[in-house]
Design brief:
Number of strands: 2
Order of helices and strands: HHHHHHHHHHEEH
Helix content: 55-70%
Distance between the termini: 42 Å
Structural class: mainly alpha
Number of helices: 11
Shape: rod-shaped
Mean pLDDT: 82
Number of domains: 2
């Protein structure tokens, strides 16, 4: 007698987010049947490729997220604040030979104070760069050294370089941020997983308990993810197969399962390790 088996939840795209998608792809690759047809192998390869694309996009978003940039921003702020305070402190030593020079230096280098440190990250980096260029072009370093603040400039240059790399405006640079990249990568993985589920479902033999058991084991990660999603939702908003499908605006794409936001350190390990390799299916040439 054929066993009752509902395959609908596994052949429709599952809703998930950045870290959760990578987590699901990794779990599916691990749970895949050891013995599988060429069609299953091909579909599994597509899951792996889509998962790797999502992992790369999520890693980049995590690297450029505010929590990641904040320490770099704080270091740069501290350098400029320290430099100005050191110069201004020297200017307050009435009667000291360097007091007047320090006052003139502060007026030259910081005519508008340090208001630029409260600007957006990109604006702050740009204004900081202009200040560093001015120090070089107007040969202000000897004056900075003379008032005892020379150690701050090398620190600021190093902090500026690190901040620029993180923002994508440093020596190596990174592509301009694509605000839809994460959504597209997530949807592509959801579609690949649904295709994989359809092929698995098409090959299961409901009259063979072993075949059904292998199918259930292969798709178990999907069940676990959806159970986690249901546990996080209000009881009056229970998901169904229909509202588990991916939609472009379905929730915050930065939120992951088990790892918090994608810029949260807990999500880091899941994004750092590549997914297990899956060999593509090589077409056999026809005679």
């Amino acid at each position: 007698m054929a066993e009752m088996l509902d395959t609908v939840p596994y052949v429709t795209p599952t809703r998930f987010s950045g870290v959760a998608g990578v987590f699901l792809a990794r779990a599916l690759l691990t749970a895949a049947p050891a013995e599988r047809s060429a069609r299953v192998q091909g579909a599994l390869h597509e899951v792996r490729e889509a998962g790797e694309t999502l992992r790369a996009v999520a890693r980049e978003r995590m690297r450029r997220a505010p929590k990641t940039l904040r320490p770099l921003d704080s270091a740069l702020d501290g350098g400029w604040l320290g430099l100005r305070e050191a110069i201004v402190a020297r200017s307050r030593l009435t009667g000291h030979p360097l007091a007047e020079r320090a006052g003139a230096l502060a007026a030259t280098l910081f005519p508008d104070g340090l208001g630029f440190l409260r600007a957006s990250y990109s604006e702050q980096w740009a204004m900081s760069q202009l200040h560093l260029e001015r120090i070089e072009e107007e040969n202000l370093q000897p004056e900075i050294d003379a008032v005892g603040a020379g150690d701050f400039v090398p620190f600021i240059r190093e902090a500026q370089a690190a901040f620029g790399e993180a923002l994508g405006v440093g020596e190596t640079g990174i592509p301009v941020d694509d605000t839809t990249a994460l959504s597209r990568a997530t949807s592509a993985l959801a579609d690949a997983i649904a295709d994989y589920g359809r092929i698995l479902a098409g090959e299961v033999d409901r009259n063979d308990p072993g075949s059904v058991a292998r199918f259930r084991e292969a798709v178990a990660p999907i069940d676990r993810l959806r159970a986690m999603m249901r546990a996080r939702r209000p009881s009056d908003d229970e998901p169904t197969a229909q509202n588990d499908t991916v939609t472009p605006d379905a929730g915050d794409p930065n939120v992951g399962v088990g790892g918090g936001d994608i810029d949260d350190p807990e999500g880091g390990p899941e994004l750092e390790e590549p997914l297990p390799p899956v060999e593509p299916v090589v077409a056999t040439p026809t005679a």
